[in-house]
Specification:
- With 385 residues, the chain is of the alpha/beta class.
- It folds into two domains: 2-138, no CATH class; 144-384, Purple Acid Phosphatase, chain A, domain 2 (4-Layer Sandwich).
- 47% of the residues lie in helices and 16% in strands.
- It has helices at residues 2-31, 42-62, 66-101, 107-111, 113-139, 177-190, 207-211, 215-218, 233-238, 240-249, 276-280, 287-290, 310-315, 335-341; strands at residues 143-151, 160-166, 194-197, 227-229, 253-254, 258-262, 266-270, 300-303, 320-323, 347-351, 354-358, 376-384.
- The strands form two sheets. It has a six-stranded mixed sheet, with helices on one face. Strands 6-7-8-9-11-10 form a six-stranded mixed sheet.
- Strand 6 and strand 7 form a beta hairpin.
- Helix 1 crosses helix 3 (66-101) and helix 2 crosses helix 3 (66-101).
Amino acid sequence: MRTTQFIIFFSIVILLYSAINYYIFSRGMQAIPLDSAFRKWYPWIFVFLASSYIIARFLERAWISPVSDVFTWIGSFWLAIMAYFLIVVLVIDIVRLFHLVLPIYPEFLVRDRAITKFGIFKFSVLLVGVTVLAGYINAISPRVRTLDLNIHKKAGNLKSLHIVMASDIHMGTLIGPRRTMHMVNMINVLKPDIVLFAGDIVDEDLTPVIRHDLGKSLKLVKAPLGVYAITGNHEYIGGAENAVKYLQDHGITMLRDTSILINNSFYIAGRDDRDKPRFSGKERKSLSEVLQAVDMKFPVILMDHQPFLLNDVAAAGVDLQLSGHTHHGQLWPLNYITEAVYELSWGYLKKGESQFYVSCGYGGWGPPVRTGNRPEVVSINITFD
C-alpha cells in the first residue's frame, strides 16, 4: 500500500515539475528572436538545469560522490530559480491578458515587439538571478535571535536558565562541514546552560552526513546541562533509527516521546515527530502520555517539531514549547501559505501561561536560498519566580 502511494505521489510531483518547467521554457523560447545565436543553446541549457535536481536525487541513492554533489547544488539552486521564473512569467502573462481587454502598453513597447520581448526576457533573467543570489547570501548569514522570557514557577535552586535552540539544520550535502561548524561556534559563543535541537537535524539521507563527518562538529557543542534533541519529519524520511543512533553517538541525547528532569530543577520533554506513523507505521505517544511522569510544579519545556494543536499544549500546562518545521516559507511568498496553515508560523506566542516559539530554522530544505526570512539560532533567557 505504501509503495503504491509513493508511486502515485512521485508521479504527481514529476508531472507538476515537468509542467511548470515546460511552461517557463516555452515562454522563454517565444521571447528569443529567431535570428539569435542563443536560441539553439537555450533548450540544451534549460533541459540540463531542469533535470539536474531529478538526476541528483537518483545519484544520491546509487552513487554518493563529487558528481552527485555537483548535480545536487545545481538542481537545488534551480528549484529557487524555477519558482521565481514561474512568478515572473505568470505576472507577464496576466499583464498581457489585461492588455488584450484594456490596452495599457506604451507605444515604445508595441513598436518592435521582438526586441521588446527579448528585452523583457533578459531583464527577467537578471531579476531572478539577483534575487536568488541575494537569497543565497542571506541563507549563509544566520543571526542570533534573543528572547527574554519569564516562567512563573520555582526551578529548584535555579533563578534563571539560558537555552540555545536551533531547528531545521538539515545537515547533508548543502549544509556541510563549514556551515555546521559555523552553527556550533555561534552556539558556543553564547555560552548556553543547555542546548536544544528541535528536529530536522539531518536532511533525509544520512550518507552525506557520515561522508563529511558532520557529527564531529556536533561533539564540540558545549553546554553544562547537556545537548538534547527530537526527531523531525526529515529524520523519518531518511530512516529515523539510523539518524537517532548517529546523533546519540555524537553527544546528543534524543528525547523520543519522553521527558527528563534536569538538575532537579526543570523538565525537558520531547515528542517524536508527527509524521512518525506515516513513515514507520507506529503511533507516537499522546501528549498526556509524554507528560504522565512529569511533576507539573516544576517548569516544563517541551520540544515538538511541527507546531500543531497549540491549545492542547496550553491545556496540558506546558510552560514553553519550542518548534520548527515551517521555515516560515523559506522562499517568499510561501510564508503566506505557512501563515495560513499554522497558528504560529514563526516567532513568539503566549496562550494563558503557556509560551511558544517557532523558529524559522538554521538550514533549509531544497534550494540553499532564503528570501522570506533570515536563518537563526535562538538564544532564550528564562527567569523563574
